[in-house]
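Write out this protein's structure.
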Amino acid sequence: MKKDDVNALFLGPKSENEKFFKEMLIMMIDEHLQWRKDFHPDDKPAISTSEKKEEIYKETFERTKNALLELSSKLKESSMPWFSPRYLGQMNSDTLMAANLGYMSTILYNPNNCAYEGGPATTSMEIEVGKQLAKMLGYDPKKAWGHITAGGTIANYEGLWMARNAKSFPLAVKEVMPELVKGKSDWQLLNMTTDEILDLIDKTKAGSKFDEVRNHSIRGIGTQGGKFGKVLVPQSKHYSWPKAADILGIGQENFINVQVGSDFRMDIEHLKSTIDNFISKKIPIMAVVTVLGTTEEGAIDKVDEVVKLRDEYQKQGISFYLHIDAAFGGYARTIFLDEDDQFMEYDEMIQKLLEAEVMEINWPKKDVYNAYKATGQADSITVDPHKMGYIPYAAGAYVARDKRILDLISYFASYVLEEGMVNSPTLLGSYILEGSKPGATAGAVWTAHKTIPLNMTGYGRIIGRSVEGAERLYDALKKSEYLEVKGKKFLITPLVSPDFNIVCFAFNEEGNKSLQAMNDLNGRIFDQCSYKSGKVFKDDFITSKTELDFKHYGDAPKKFVMECGIPGDEWDKVKSVRVIRSCVLTPWLISNTNYLQYWGSFLHSMKKALEKIG
């Protein structure tokens, strides 16, 4: 793909590619209609010509048409314009034509990917997509396994589900086949590496006692009051994680928040001290979760340093399951892969991105690069095609480094089984949290991946434009410093230099020392530049906001508050700061785009908001 090809991938902010989209949609509908006609063509029509002439038949068509017109009216009236470059609110953007057409085409066949019988075509597509994502994330696709979920939340649940069951398996082996773990203490069994646990699975199968062992694991006997250890997550975690601890019976007291720094990445020293504290009390660590693209700040945790820390602990006989929540940032790894899908060396990458015009900025920072380089060393990863994959909802994904781990969570229903399929990963319903699931989603992701390479020549170009847009917004805010409205100066302070494509910032009136007053100001600005204004089709930008408070972040936001001109003791009193949050997923806000002139229009929109609130 060349640079301008990105423009041919989307319907476009002004429906620029409507002719092609219509042609392809009609073609796919015609294909489906003919498929119906060709299935046993000798069968007589079920609906006769005379029945179609009846008045009640025509009335039914009319009711359907009216319902669709009313639906269209409601959708146009209050849906959010994700497609517009002026939408910079949540993690949404225009979606790929290939994905939309793939979804709409597949839904006509209504496949169910719970079992192979329910969707032979799309189940195979889902398994193929899982391997593609595994390769993209740095896994060996021959050993790894992945599938599409209803979203990142479900994928996170599955990651913790795997970690929980894996942690308990060695103790179950001791109960049933003690000869396999002879000489090992309970503490040693609770600190076996994931690979050692997977090898135990193979050994119990060879001894024909796998099912008995599994029944003695946590899935059979329960969590037993935190016996199997703590789950460590950064303060910047997605809200699905504490829900997962609840649903999986781990308990909130065993769910530990690790401090983030002022860059909103997990503090590695705090992680180490937290692990050391529990180890000193003989409390095991069940899992550590890192985030590749936090939902509030777009921060990239230092995955490589967590991997290094895990390796150091393993030398001491201590281990834990490592999961990466890359729901948001996972697809960005395509920027790091060359045209042959190989992870590039840092200097080579910077040079190639510039030469190939993937982006016109020097990105990424070295620590972000190192984090992405290390992803293949995690035990499992969450990634969302419906975020940076530009796929329509709902499409998350869970990817495991080693497919043997599926044995720890598999269930089978006799009515969906065929001889020889008991251990087949194509029997999705037995290996996942969901049961019935739409094959249309698999059709959408598969079509997108078929159209767009999962490397710098394909998805990398799209996401590169997004990252560049965010960098340009950050630069515009830094250079502007303040906006002057009605004789008053309002200082602009970005939260952090973006790791990815989210830019958070706050306004504060010059001379104001009250954090509460600053929070109120930014709340009123948000009201003018968001869905709350009720003016989503006006000429302003649409943003979002978030609250960074002590409960969730500790004192990490304090440095930013002080940079805004607010005394530190104000943070100690209020313990919460409100920021404007702009998710720059759109590929249309780069330097060569005529739609906007270097973010001047965005700043003008902010100025208008300040004028309206007085």
